[in-house]
Amino acid sequence: MLEPFAKPFYITQPLLPDIDEFNEMLKEIWASKQLSNNGNMVKQLERDLSGYLNADYLSVFSSGTVALQLACKVLRLSGEIITTPFTFAATAHSLVWNNIKPVFCDIEEDSYNINPDLIESLITQNTTAIMPVHVFGNPCKVKKIQKIADKYGLKVLYDAAHAFGVKVNGKPISDFGDISMFSFHATKIYHTIEGGALTYKDPYFKERADSLRNFGIRSLESVTEPGTNGKLNEIQAAVGILLLKQVEDEIKARKEITNLYRQMLKEIPGIITSKDMEGVSHNYSYFVIRINKEEYGISRDELFDKLLEYNIIARKYFYPLCSNFQCYKDLPSSSKLKLPVANKIADMVICLPLHGRMRENDVEKICTIIKAFHEG
Ligand code: T4K
């Protein structure tokens, strides 16, 4: 008889900086008396992150959501934007906060990303951009998407919230599209407790985004547009500076855990695990599986509930789909008939715990429990 975990086993556990190193950084901040408003820590973090992500220009923000909202402003987007329903609420919300209508496009069965073959049929004279999400850190079909954008004169704004450090054939993920947004929320592989970043190739985009995150203030006596408060503070920036030194080890540890999961789950009928994509350096930010009820014996929802009995707190990312939210379900593109793959996948997926502090024993125990449910 398998015992439940003694304490809740959450889907993730935040990476934490060394407390002594963090104290040293705090002493520096205390001495400087600069707590926010583009101080030395934020400036250093932006330099460090530009180097790590290989981005020409980069700005940090108080959250990924604010960063997305401001990216729409920087690109002067309006009208309709084609995006995916298989994502976190913030993707679609950031459009609506800009008075932009989200137009949901169905997803690919294998990557769970927007299906580029369906984008063109959704373009109207009101479309100004495509906003794909590299969901779970798996890169979208970036070349195909860019080709469509170029053909119709559209901008491409990537929600790369999950894709920190991912590379495609050696190229950083931020190389694609006009702007990419990375989330630095505590649940992400790399974080600043709360926070986010935008990367750009155009220095003018950075200039505008930096002004917009600081109320649109250009100088002491000049406010050029209605911005917001989207600034990251010095203490969170210090966390970010320190965690950047740990993120490579975290990715390595997660890769090992992921491979162990894949190996242990592969023999269980009805459990479909993801594979590494060719030419991609993954960051292993989530471990998602799909449940085929007919073969596995119980549904995704039943598995989720049974895992709870063992103190395993999995998550149904991304169920419900954004297109089925109360606030979006009446949009013309939200019809379930138009999004058959997304609706099917959202009922099958479940993310299992994954972080660098997990031990082999933990994975073995979770997999043994999942196997036992199949065997009844
Ligand atoms: N675009 C996409 C595609 C996104 O996924 C997100 C965020 C965004 C945009 C927006 O970026 P931000 O504005 O958030 O920077 C979490 C996160 O809050 C959210 O950032 C993330 N996506 C989303 C996928 O996941 P919840 O509601 O599932 O989080 P929560 O609080 O249930 O946390 C999950 C588990 O993590 C908990 O059960 C325990 C553990 N945990 C969590 C926190 C916050 C800890 O151990 N310590 C912690 O401090 O949304």
Care to give the gist of this entry?
The chain has 376 residues and is α/β, with parallel strands linked by helices. The chain is built from 12 helices and 17 strands.
Task: Please characterize this protein's 3D structure.
- With 376 residues, the chain is of the alpha/beta class.
- It folds into two domains: 19-243, 3-Layer(aba) Sandwich (Aspartate Aminotransferase, domain 2); 247-375, Alpha-Beta Complex (Aspartate Aminotransferase, domain 1), CATH 3.90.1150.10.
- 36% of the residues lie in helices and 16% in strands.
- It contains twelve helices and 17 strands.
- It has helices spanning 19-32, 40-53, 64-74, 89-96, 142-152, 203-212, 234-243, 247-265, 293-296, 300-309, 340-346, 360-375; strands spanning 9-10, 57-61, 80-83, 101-104, 127-131, 155-159, 167-168, 171-172, 179-183, 196-200, 217-219, 222-223, 271-273, 280-281, 287-291, 312-313, 349-352.
- The strands form five sheets. The chain has a seven-stranded mixed sheet with strand order 2-10-9-6-5-3-4, sandwiched between helices. It has a three-stranded antiparallel sheet with strand order 8-7-14, with no helix packed on it. The chain has a three-stranded antiparallel sheet with strand order 13-15-17.
- Helix 3 runs parallel beside helix 4 (89-96) and helix 3 packs across helix 6 (203-212).
- The longest helix is centred in the C-terminal third of the chain and has 19 residues, at 247-265.
- Ligand T4K binds at residues 10-14, 63-65, 87-88, 90-91, 133, 159, 161-162, 183, 185-187, 196, 313, 315, 317.
- Residues 10-14, 63-65, 87-88, 90-91, 133, 159, 161-162, 183, 185-187, 196, 313, 315, 317 line the site of ligand T4K.
